[in-house]
Amino acid sequence: MSEKMATKPASATAQEEREKINRRMNRIRHKIMVLSGKGGVGKSTVATNLAVSLSQSGRSVGLLDIDIHGPSIPMMLGLAGVSPTSSGSVLDPVYLDTLKVMSIGFLIKSGNDAVIWRGPMKIKAIKQLLGDVAWGDLDYLIIDSPPGTGDEPLSICQLIEHPDGAIIVTTPQQVAAIDVRKSLTFCRKLKLPVLGIVENMSGFSCPRCGEVVDIFPSGGGEEMANDFGVPFLGKLPIDPAISKACDSGTPFMQRYAQTETAAKLRNIIAPILALSAEEAKNETT
Predict the structure, then answer these.
(1) Helix-helix angle 260-284:43-56, to 10 degrees
(2) In this structure, what CATH number is given to the domain that contains residue 136?
(3) How many structural domains are present in the chain?
């Protein structure tokens, strides 16, 4: 048989990839993206602590980091340098207690290595992270996307059938809000539901007395939510404890679970937990 005849048509390969991804994703009840049109707003910090908080609530949770060029979740969770195990073409997620984690950061040799890939390579990697990782049965998969509206978030939206929606992270400043609004437009064009907006770095939480003092004009996230007619999930202050937790590789929601900031994070996940409650209600009716 000639090499040309033995090679599968591209359409057949694409169909196999699609079916493999669907098989993995069909075992996950809720797929939620964390997006922002602006870098530096603390999106990965929010995604990480949302996933940890959901896991603490007794749900089975996966956290997928698709920031190809700047994967920070391994360091935030104290998993830097960890390599996932594999069996054939199947990758096992890395565990943090019961939380399942996967990131491109686990697959590169050094944290100093630059991933210099064009769009097709990034899309291929995302397909593998969705289809080749043994996620198993999950209540939630939290997907941390890089800032902007480029290849990575677009690929996820196109590859996952019927994601539950997106959480948009912004900071109060107008310069951030202008870019973050583009994420909301992105969701509308792709018919991706917006579960809500989180205003991060909204005031400074004093480490001594706990008082929150506005150092930027606040309310930009809530105003944006009103303008677009989407839920406002809440405000998170600049809290030095969050920086300490991220740098030490200990999830903030584990190390500082009794703080006011942790309570605000738990309030933010309430509408997300409601997704599974609503699903359970529908299953019994």
Answers:
(1) 60
(2) 3.40.50.300
(3) 1
* 15 inside domain: no
Q: Is 83 within 8 Å of 154 (Cβ atoms)?
A: no
Q: Which residues partner with 31 through β-bridges?
A: 141
Residues of the domain holding 149 = 25-284
Taking the CA of residue 169 as centre, how many other CA atoms within 13 Å lie in the half-sphere pointing to its CB? 28
Please give the Cα distance from 46 to 44 (Å, whole number). 5
> What tens digit of pLDDT does each residue of 80-96 get?
989 899 888 899 999 99
Cβ atoms of 101 and 178 within 8 Å: the answer is no
Name 96's bridge partners.
99
pLDDT digits (tens, 9 = 90+) for 210-233: 778 887 777 888 999 999 999 999
Contact 245, 44 (CB under 8 A): no
Is residue 9 situated within a structural domain? Answer: no
The model scores a pTM over 0.70: yes
Residue 73 and residue 220 in contact, taking contact as beta carbons nearer than 8 Å: no
Strands laid side by side in the 61-65 sheet: 94-96, 99-103, 61-65, 138-144, 28-35, 165-170, 194-199, 232-235
Interacting residues of 268 by C-beta distance below 8 A, sequence separation 6+: 50, 196, 198, 233, 234, 236
Residue 44 three-state SS: helix
14 located within any domain: no
